[in-house]
Amino acid sequence: MFAATCRPGEVYKGYDNREILTLKSDPDFAEKLRQEYKDIVPGFYMDKRNWNSIFLDGRVPEEVLKALCDHSYNLVFGKLTKKMQKLITEGN
């Protein structure tokens, strides 16, 4: 998994029932993003060092969001076995 979406309920303080996208990230990069964008927070229900949650109704530019999706995918894809990577890239 490289991405997940959800809308945490009202019992989860700070999420305010807003829809979020959670993406994997390099730990240092994840922290930098949280400092740069108030709508990027530690990953909801994930390892807070390696995952960020982005409020989809927030002020993170679309091009940044797309780049973060690519970054997350590449991190997860890079950890797969060579055999699995080949299966995915060849579509078999």
Structural overview:
The structure is a single chain. With 92 residues, this protein is an alpha+beta fold. The chain has one domain: Aspartate Aminotransferase, domain 1. Helices cover 40% and strands 18% of the residues. It contains three helices and four strands, in the order E-E-H-E-E-H-H. Strands 1-2-4-3 form a four-stranded antiparallel beta sheet, covered by helices on one side. A hairpin with an 8-residue loop joins strand 3 and strand 4. It starts with a strand and ends with a helix. The mean pLDDT is 92.
Please write the CATH class name. Answer: Alpha Beta
Largest beta sheet, briefly?
Answer: 4 strands, antiparallel
CATH topology: Aspartate Aminotransferase, domain 1
Number of strand elements: 4
What is the rounded Rg?
14 Å
Q: What's the SSE pattern?
A: EEHEEHH
Distance between the termini: 19 Å
**Strand neighbour order, sheet with most strands:** 1-2-4-3
Number of helices: 3
Structural class: alpha+beta
**Mean pLDDT over the full residue set:** 92
- How many distinct domains? 1
Uncertain segments: none
